[in-house]
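Exercise 7b. C-alpha cells:
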C-alpha cells in the first residue's frame, strides 16, 4: 500500500587534495606564548586555587607553559650531553699525554741512573 520513497542524500564532500592541504599548512600558525616569571606565577595560582574549574583558556596557557618548560629542559639536557662528551674526550687526551710524560720521565730516570753508575 505505502511505498517507501528513496530520499535523495546530497553527495558527501570530496576530500581535500594535496595542494589544498599544503596551502592550509602554510597559513596555519600557532601563536607561541612568551613565558615570564609573573605569568608562570599567575598560572600556578590559578591552578592551585581552582584546579577543577579552570577555563579552557587558562588550561591551554598552563599546557603551553608546561610544554615550553619541557622543551627548554630538553635543550639543556642536550647541551649537557654534548659538554659531557667533550669533557670525556679532553680527559682521554690528558690521560694519554700524562702517560706519555710518565714514560718519558721513566726513560730519563733510567738514563740518569745508568750515567751515575
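Sequence design result:
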Amino acid at each position: 500500500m505505502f511505498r517507501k520513497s528513496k530520499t535523495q542524500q546530497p553527495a558527501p564532500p570530496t576530500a581535500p587534495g594535496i595542494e589544498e592541504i599544503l596551502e592550509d599548512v602554510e597559513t596555519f600558525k600557532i601563536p607561541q606564548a612568551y613565558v615570564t616569571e609573573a605569568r608562570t606565577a599567575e598560572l600556578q595560582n590559578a591552578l592551585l586555587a581552582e584546579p577543577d574549574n579552570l577555563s579552557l583558556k587558562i588550561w591551554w596557557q598552563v599546557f603551553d607553559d608546561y610544554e615550553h618548560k619541557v622543551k627548554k629542559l630538553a635543550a639543556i639536557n642536550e647541551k649537557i650531553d654534548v659538554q659531557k662528551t667533550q669533557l670525556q674526550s679532553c680527559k682521554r687526551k690528558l690521560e694519554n699525554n700524562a702517560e706519555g710524560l710518565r714514560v718519558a720521565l721513566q726513560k730519563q730516570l733510567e738514563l740518569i741512573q745508568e750515567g751515575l753508575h
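Instructor comment: The radius of gyration is 35 Å. The mean pLDDT is 83.
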